[in-house]
Specification:
The complex is a heterodimer of chains A (207) and B (198).
Chain A lengths: L3 H19 L3 H17 L3 H19 L5 H20 L6 H34 L3 H16 L2 H6 L2 H11 L1 H25 L12
Chain B lengths: L1 H16 L7 H37 L6 H8 L14 H9 L1 H20 L6 H16 L8 H44 L5
Helix pairs in contact in B: 1-2, 1-7, 6-7
Classes of the chains: A mainly alpha (207), B mainly alpha (198).
Chain lengths: 207, 198
Amino acid sequence: MKRQLPLIIVIGLGFLFVIHVFVPHPISQDFFDWFQKWIKVISPFALSLGIMSLTTVHYHKIKKKAPNWPYSYVTLIGLYVTALTGFIWGIEEGTPFMWIFRNLNVPMGATMFSLLAFYIASAAYKAFRARNLEATVLLIAAVIVMLGRVSIGNAISHWIPDATIWLLNVPNLAAQRGIGLGVGLGMVATSLKIILGIERSYLGGGD
Amino acid sequence: METFGVWIAAILTLFIFSFLYKENPFYRFAEHLLVGVSAGYIIPYTYYNVFVPYAWNPIINKHEYILILPAIIGVFYIFRFSRKLSWLSRYPIAFSMGIVGMYVPLTMQANVLVQMRSAMLPLTNINTILIFIGTVSILLYFFFSKAHKGLYGKFTSIGIWFMMIGFGSAFGYTVMARISLLIGRIQFLLKDWLHLMK
């Protein structure tokens, strides 16, 4: 019963939600409201999994003195100091929590993502060097889209912004639609596998 | 305090940019700090914006004691790390997975039927013909039950070309977004920190 009962809950709820979409009866709506209330109470506890996992990983790294273990102290201090400032002083504007967010989290996050600008440029160069026809098409499309969205593109030729609009509205639309349809069908198939009890990997291992 | 914050932000920005030279202790410090601070940010944020309004206030202030039951189910998440009691963590997961039932009709509607309806346009000009050929060839490219050989293989290869243009457009937008972030960081260093720009 350790596996069967959760499976029965998933299958039961799954079919009830399928019915809920097609039958907008007050009972069905009440059931949906009840479920939403319950899931909003359950969901914040999922965060404890992530925090425990992060703490355990870094605790073991420190304990075993694994490579780069001193940096694990940095992660753990960052994690608990940020969380504690939020609990002690609140999360409103002007609190130490928001100070950490503005002066540590935001600049570091933005800088980390901006680093990708350099690596994307080197990836584009490698794709160009590959002399692969498909990769070249990708690169040309990327260059046209980039130039067409900034004023220099229009300064070079007025055809560039027009070409960008055409690329986005015709071949790109076909690509997005084809991929989107595939993704949609994949989601439906996976959802069906879950509510029919075929896909059970989310239950984890053990009994 | 504001100047101190700018200095901290600038130093951490330089620590991360130092990775462009090679991996070094300064970068590793900033990288680990970012992971810790980002995770630490989510805890009070979730507590004040989800736990307090939807669990604490209804139970304590509105006396909706029935909600203690989902709260207990939620606590079962932590048993995921216990060898003997990990089976209990399947209950909150099961409740969360139940909503998947809604995805079947809703995804079918939003991702499949609406897209198909939009694709079924009268083939009156070259653009609608190209969109039609592109969509069909991409769908056939992902149809693996038939070998991509002969005329069928040639048609599916057209799908690759359409996808490459699609990926190229997405790549172009990504590069622009990253460069915009880079400009933002350089502006911060030159304007807010060093006051070299106005």
